[in-house]
Design brief:
alpha+beta; 6-stranded antiparallel sheet; about 35% helix
Length: about 500
């Protein structure tokens, strides 16, 4: 899962605008960040780390131009090296820069096709390169891009047909403009908006969430549709075209965890969706007939649901876990070891809220269970008499192949366990999961008529290329990456030899 922001026609310097946007999208990725701008050529700066650590004044001064794109990244199937940081830039055939959010699911097929073209060499393990080079090959067949936007749409349509998976993409084409497009199932979110400049012209922007647009004063914010492409030409109104028509299946996990609560994802308020998750989870709690003295959320993404749940079960809501705001989100840390050590550095308890009480802990989800186990241990160390654990989402039983780091079933605690067995595994007195029917009802009650992709919960993948063989190949790749990380860690720990 990543976040990006693109702008064309910025009144001042695009890089400062993109920097502010990436700060507001930092929750979507903390592994790497990058910005590319364009005036008469591309200017690129990217690297590993948080936005505030990657960019310095000297970097910003050379990122000139009124157009640009930026991205914050956390790795799924790519690596964690600087080479895998986005955006990416190629010079052939026109000069193209690209950043994305998502994951390509037919990567080997695309690689083989690109190899057959004999015009591309991949430089990283990041799958945005597959989309970038596919677009470059298709554009090379066009000739002069201006003023014929239809030829660009034709190239983009071929990209959407060839590259499978989940992706939202922002692209700069030198001497042309900015292009934004979304995969045919619309699994990854994307919005656009406009802002009036002092001279009466408009600047246009696209983003993974609406928050950067609102912060930067953009108006008329609206969703880019599934399978749609938008061309933004400086000084002109955007040109929109539906390239591929399929059922819209946005990712339901955006509302559970990834998006900010003040975001609107696919025209649905994340805050309202999470309130409804709390209402539905309260029904599940009451069905179980359990009793607690206090409801305590695992900050931050579970706070909205937990407070609503507490209200509906008639139990006091208290914030008994204090979060260190300067530690990253443990779910999106790239290694299990990083997640394990990060939890304890991130959270500390207020003992008076736990001591001698039956405590109901509410989290947004339980994926691997290691974080939950540590939080339960923390509650017991603070003196809790009983510890109940509730998940706002259903059991995660299947890997996500669309850009969320749940790559192997072996890592998922719920893959073959009941609620009682999971409670035992994490050390809780009881475990409560949200039924998937209740999860979908929560989104419907928030105003959505969409059928969300919930493959990580029900195993129903909306794209046809995801088969048992695909999942096996991804799992093998992921296990190989884990072994490589272990070997690298062992080498780092071994004494040097003279």
């Amino acid at each position: 899962m990543c976040g990006f922001f693109g702008v064309v026609g910025s009144e001042n310097s695009a890089c400062h605008e993109i920097y502010e946007a990436l700060i507001s999208l930092q929750h979507r990725g903390q592994d790497a960040a990058g910005i590319v701008t364009h005036d008469d050529r591309f200017h690129l700066k990217k690297g590993n780390g948080l936005v505030r650590d990657v960019f310095r004044l000297k970097n910003m001064e050379r990122l000139t131009g009124s157009s640009g794109i930026g991205q914050v990244r956390y790795p799924t199937f790519g690596g964690s090296t600087t080479e895998d940081a986005q955006p990416f830039v190629v010079n052939y055939p026109y000069g193209i820069a690209m950043a994305h959010n998502g994951n390509v699911t037919n990567g080997e097929e695309v690689k083989n096709w690109l190899s057959s073209q004999k015009r591309t060499i991949l430089h990283s393990s990041c799958d945005v390169e597959l989309i970038l080079f596919t677009l470059a090959v298709e554009l090379s067949e066009i000739g002069d891009l201006q003023p014929d936007s239809e030829s660009v749409f034709a190239a983009l349509k071929k990209v959407l047909e060839r590259v499978q998976g989940a992706y939202s993409v922002a692209t700069l084409i030198s001497q042309f403009g900015m292009v934004a497009f979304r995969d045919p199932n619309g699994i990854r979110p994307m919005v656009m908006g406009s802002r009036e400049n002092s001279d009466g012209t408009l600047s246009w922007a696209c983003s993974s969430e609406n928050i950067p647009l609102e912060i930067l004063g953009y108006k008329n914010v609206e969703m880019i549709k599934a399978g749609e492409a938008v061309i933004f030409l400086p000084g002109k109104d955007p040109i929109r075209k539906q390239l591929v028509q399929r059922a819209h299946n946005p990712c339901i996990f955006e509302h559970v965890y990834f998006a900010r609560p003040d975001s609107i994802i696919d025209d649905v308020s994340v805050y309202e969706a999470r309130r409804n998750l709390g209402k539905q989870l309260a029904n599940r709690w009451n069905e179980r007939g359990l009793k607690a003295d206090v409801v305590i959320p695992v900050p931050d993404s579970a706070c909205t649901s937990a407070s609503t749940m507490a209200q509906h079960i008639g139990v006091e809501y208290r914030e008994g876990l204090v979060k260190n705001r300067y530690i990253g989100r443990t779910f999106i840390m790239p290694g299990q070891g990083d997640r394990t050590s990060g939890v304890r550095r991130k959270l500390n308890s207020i003992r008076s809220e736990f001591e001698g009480k039956d405590v109901l802990l509410v989290d947004d989800s339980v994926v691997r269970g290691t974080t939950s186990r540590q939080i339960v241990d923390l509650a017991r160390a603070a003196g809790a008499r009983k510890v109940f654990f509730a998940s706002c989402s259903p059991p995660v039983q299947f890997p996500c192949v669309y850009g969320v780091d749940m790559s192997t079933r072996a890592e998922l605690i719920a893959r073959e366990k009941s609620e009682e067995q999971i409670a035992e595994a994490i050390g809780a007195d009881a475990m409560i999961y949200q039924p998937i029917s209740s999860l979908r009802k929560a989104l419907k009650d928030a105003g959505s008529e969409l059928h969300y992709c919930a493959a990580c919960f029900d195993g129903e993948y909306p794209t046809p290329e995801v088969t048992a063989e695909t999942l096996s190949a991804i799992e093998a790749c992921r296990l190989g990456e884990q072994e490589k990380l272990k070997e690298e860690s062992a080498e780092d720990m071994s004494p040097s030899r003279g």
